[in-house]
UniProtKB/TrEMBL annotation:
It comes from the Bacteria. This is Protein RarD. The chain crosses the membrane at residues 7-25, 37-55, 67-85, 97-115, 124-144, 150-170, 182-200, 212-231, 243-262. The keyword Transcription regulation does not apply. The lineage of its organism: Bacteria, Bacillati, Bacillota, Bacilli, Lactobacillales. Belongs to the EamA transporter family. It holds the Pfam family EamA. The keyword Cell inner membrane does not apply. InterPro entries: EamA_dom (IPR000620), EmrE-like (IPR037185).
Length: 303
């Protein structure tokens, strides 16, 4: 019981930290691609050190057949971050985050085509109501955000598509799990993002002021490195359903930060849309069967 309480506390802390990501990203004046690259580098260094200190060896012999999948999932994770960071630039943190949380809905729709899983009434209802939620989040003109606001939502949905891709690819990765998988995905993201940044923008670390450096280190080391270690430590002790429920602290904190810290507006229709997305995706995820718990654990490892 004590271990479960400690794990629950660690997971809550992890989700709260994840929820503040947009606040820090907003204050780092570099391109989204460059930020994604530095986030991956800092996190990989910290998690790599953690693995060495805890003597957790990566079973390369057992996973060599899955390295291509790890590479592709790492690429998807990197571009997932880029699009999410772009979403923060064009719309509010709350709208970007809620758009991003459409990813589980995409997975639900993709599974029948990829894994021959049948969609029942519950899955169809969750898909339809979550889609209605996305329509409501566009604001229907309430915020007057215009083209930039819609662009931000599209970037958020694009990030959700890449996030869903990572979730689906992880379903094929059987011989490496948890923090080992994420570490290798970070390495794959770094390999791809270095040439991407070189071709699309420039390396501008030298132009960062002290404030930018501090926020960059927080995003890379705290939001990614330290929080991932806390997150995977918690998952070892918690049942999948409890973890699924606690994971929704993340978007709720993001909305709170957006409205009460950043002072960003959110309309009634967007609040209702957010509740539709989070409520119906949560209802879909807390299926009491073991496969759903396994899917949850794998899906939440690449925030």
């Amino acid at each position: 019981m004590k271990k479960i309480k400690e794990a629950r506390f660690l997971l809550i802390i992890s989700m709260v930290i994840f929820g503040t990501l947009g606040l820090f990203v907003r204050n780092i004046p570099i391109s989204s691609g460059e930020l994604a690259l530095y986030r991956a580098i800092l996190a990989a260094l910290l998690i790599g050190s953690f693995l060495v200190l805890t003597r957790q060896k990566i079973p390369f012999g057992a996973i060599k057949k899955e390295l291509p999948l790890l590479l592709f999932s790492g690429i998807a994770m990197g571009f997932n971050w880029i699009l999410l960071f772009e979403a923060y630039k064009y719309t509010t943190v709350s709208v970007a985050t809620l758009s991003y949380y459409f990813a589980p809905v995409i997975v639900t729709i993709a599974c029948p085509f990829l894994f021959k899983e049948k969609m029942g009434f519950k899955q169809w209802l969750c898909f339809i109501m979550s889609t209605v939620g996305i329509v409501l989040i566009t604001g229907l003109g309430d915020l007057g955000g215009g083209k930039a606001h819609l662009t931000g939502i599209l970037f958020g949905l694009g990030a959700a598509c890449f996030y869903a891709t990572v979730i689906l690819l992880n379903k094929f990765i059987k011989n490496v799990g948890g923090i080992h998988r994420t570490f290798l995905q970070f390495i794959a993201a770094i390999i791809v993002l270095i040439p991407y940044v070189a071709m699309t923008s420039h390396f501008s670390l030298g132009q960062l002021a002290m404030k930018g450096w501090i926020y960059l280190l927080i995003v890379g080391l705290v939001h990614t490195g330290i929080t991932y270690c806390l997150y995977f430590s918690a998952l070892k002790e918690l049942p999948g359903q409890k973890a699924a429920i606690l994971s929704y602290i993340d978007p709720l904190v993001a909305v709170f930060i957006s409205v009460f810290v950043l002072g960003e507006a959110i309309s009634l229709s967007q609040m209702i849309g957010g509740l539709f997305i989070l409520g119906f995706t949560l209802w879909n995820e807390i299926n009491p069967t073991a496969p759903m718990e396994e899917k949850y654990v794998k899906s939440r490892s690449n925030h």
